[in-house]
Description:
Largest sheet: 5 strands, parallel
Structural class: alpha/beta
Shape: elongated
Amino acid sequence: MVVPKLTLVGAGPGDPELITLKGIRAIREADVILYDALANDELLEYAKPDVPKIFVGKRRGSCAFSQEEINQMIIENALKYGHVVRLKGGDPFVFGRGFEELEFAKAFNIPVQVVPGITSAISVPEMQQIPITTRGINESFWVTTGTTKTGDLSGDIAIAAKSSATVVILMAMSKLEEIVKLFAAEGKNDTPVAIIQNGTLPTEKMVIGKVKNIVSEVKRHKLDNPAIIVIGEVVSLHPEYVAKYAGVLVAKGSRQNTN
């Protein structure tokens, strides 16, 4: 007898070891798996051999299915197979549209469960030893998407640029020039920036610079999506920044020369 169920599983930032034990257990118990492009394919090896594995992600701007189609596929597969694991990159509730899928399943009286994942917004800089918060430097951080549903630049970025917070921007490489203009307008041309592509994977690439030169650095090193943008004084703690600019931030508002 088929017992329908949906489990949203956060696959983490990319490295297949950065998933929770509970997430692995859900994959092992799945009757069908619907997985995204940012969920590492190696995680599918935990599934039972005969379990259908259906790719529903986006690659280079091309969607395999619309969100409405994915919602419907969750219901159809739950009724046909039973336990659907929806494997999503990062954390399902951090710009992952996980809540939309959860609510859709609930409308069909399908039991739901969420297994949180490690979000790239924090873990990718962390793996590069860039802290999101550090005592004496900042007291908060923003995590924002680069674009809204209409494709426009998120208005929250302009507000974040006015603060002393670390600003982490996801899915925003196409908007990089617009973003740096907002920070420059706030007198932050010299604010450190790190951009990390394919974070936590063997193919990871990182460029470190400042607001005033990060666009040219990205072009020179040919960085592209998927990547995250980190803007804030915490980036100056990275050894590459110290080597490049011969200084390290030791306290809020002060610098020490390393020469």
